[in-house]
Design goal:
Radius of gyration: 17 Å
Shape: globular
CATH class of the largest domain: Alpha Beta
Number of helices: 8
Structural class: alpha/beta
CATH architecture of the largest domain: 3-Layer(aba) Sandwich
CATH superfamily of the largest domain: Alpha/Beta hydrolase fold, catalytic domain
Helix content: 40-55%
Strand content: 15-25%
Strand order of the largest sheet: 2-1-3-4-7-8
Number of strands: 8
Distance between the termini: 14 Å
Order of helices and strands: EHEHEHEHHEEHEHEH
CATH topology of the largest domain: Rossmann fold
């Protein structure tokens, strides 16, 4: 089984959860290969990169995605496009809305833009640079707006773990969206957005992934 770990916004190929996943697989599952691509690029490039990787790997053996936060959004898009199963961790469902905070911050801190609306910012305006080096622009926010999640094409191939105390994203939005689409949603009490107890849950995570690739 191939597992592609899709990191979140302020992360990269060396994310903690990705490394934990790879190490666990090496120690306990010789038949598992973990791929940790760096996805600090414009969203259209990320989508194309992931679709290409899934297509290449699926010619060899079954492939599954794990997506955290914004990685959960991309995992859903890629699953819709390819039919690849996916496990999502505190997924972002409305990045076109939640990432607008960077445009708000820029306007508040830039006197020269006082009074302008967000839609008046230049398309190439850098709103925020992630820890991994992705310069988020107004054009990126528009791409997310043009590619909103409205339905799940393969709901039985999607499972979602949501922490009820996620401090960054509204867990109720993710819960409602994926449940309405017919996907498996597992609510976990407490926790945080980063899914800090991911290492402790790896046996259950692997079992869930194995179930998903059988669907």
């Amino acid at each position: 089984m191939n597992i592609i770990y899709i990191h979140g916004l302020d992360s990269d190929a060396n994310s903690t959860k990705g490394i934990l996943l790879e190490s666990y697989g090496q120690q306990h599952h010789a038949d598992i290969n973990v791929y940790r691509p760096d996805l600090n690029s414009a969203p259209e490039q990320v989508f194309e990169q992931l679709v290409k990787l899934v297509t290449e790997l699926n010619t060899e053996e079954k492939t599954v995605l794990i997506g955290s936060s914004l990685g959960g959004y991309f995992s859903t898009l890629v699953s819709n496009h390819t039919g690849c199963p996916a496990l999502l961790l505190n997924p972002s469902t409305q990045p076109h809305v939640t990432l607008q905070r960077f445009a708000h911050d820029l306007l508040l801190n830039n006197d020269s833009n006082e009074g302008q609306g967000e839609d008046e910012l230049p398309k190439n305006q850098i709103l925020y640079t992630t820890a991994g080096g992705w310069d988020i622009t107004s054009a990126d926010l528009q791409w997310f707006a043009d590619h909103q999640l409205s339905e799940i094409h393969y709901p039985k191939k999607i499972a979602v773990f949501i922490k009820e105390d996620d401090e960054l994203l509204n867990p109720e939005l993710s819960k409602a969206f994926y449940q309405q689409q017919g996907s498996t949603v597992i609510l976990q009490a407490g926790g945080d957005h980063r899914f800090s107890d991911f290492g402790e849950q790896l046996p259950m995570v692997i079992n869930m992934l194995q179930d998903l690739v059988r669907v």
